[in-house]
Design brief:
With about 120 residues, the protein is mostly helical. It contains 7 helices and 2 strands; from the N terminus they run αααααββαα. The model has no long low-confidence stretch (mean pLDDT about 85).
Length: about 120
């Protein structure tokens, strides 16, 4: 059987985020058996399912399919810090302006509180 980079990245993301296969399948709206085809057989989902997967994992379809984000290769060996920065960036990109302002206020307060201690 041919190795599936999509499968590997999907497994890595589920493990990194600590999401169970059952919970992930429910959030994406697919059966556990269908998820098993993607995880264990290396099948590739349809575009609409891949979009839902990326949304639940707070990543991009581009990353899941190609291993790249905005055309730049993302290594599976990236440090946890790099993954956290990527995750924050993805969250920020999805926030409407009003929520972004609240997010920045919270982030600034957090930074201030942490640097005082």
């Amino acid at each position: 059987m041919k190795k599936s980079p999509f499968k590997d990245r999907l497994i890595d993301e589920l493990n990194y985020r600590g999401i169970s296969n059952k919970d992930f399948a429910e959030k994406v709206g697919i059966s556990s058996g269908t998820l098993g085809m993607y995880l264990y057989r290396g099948s590739i989902p349809s575009a609409d399912v891949a979009v839902k997967m990326a949304y639940v994992l707070n990543t991009s379809v581009e990353y899941l399919v190609t291993g790249k984000e905005n055309g730049v290769k993302i290594s599976k060996n990236d440090s946890k810090n790099q993954w956290q920065i990527k995750e924050i960036s993805n969250i920020v990109k999805t926030l409407p302006d009003t929520q972004l302002e609240h997010f920045l206020t919270i982030a600034r307060e957090f930074k201030s509180a942490v640097t005082k201690s």
